[in-house]
Amino acid sequence: MPRLAGVDIPENKRVEASLQYIYGVGRINVRGILEKAKVDGNKRTNQLALEELSRLQKVLDEVKVEGDLRKAIGQNISRLKETGSYRGIRHARGLPARGQRTRTNARTKRGKRMTIGALKKEALAKVEASKVEKAKKEEKK
Description:
Blueprint: E1 3-4, E2 7-8, H1 15-18, H2 27-37, H3 50-62, H4 66-83, H5 86-93, H6 107-110, H7 121-140
């Protein structure tokens, strides 16, 4: 299995598809990377010569991918949080930051549904029991 930018690339797929396994390389910029490296995108990854792999690695070193890209994105989000911008507050609260509705949907960002308001007797008893346990733990501290 060839290794580019710290990621194992699948052997039996076309180069154009297998480069997309690298974080930060998508369908659009993979063509530019292949043109710069002068590699045929229709070739299978296991058919690439060592010279072609080294050219691909040199081109990928110029592009921000994997750890560098993740670090930059994390820094951008922390900067938004520190400045107290609207988007930063939404990130901190775990809500959608780009104007999506949250009254319905947004389950992937907000997590599992939690009923607020009217509870059944059994559920209310569980909630009260957990509150009592938390109070006991705090008293021990």
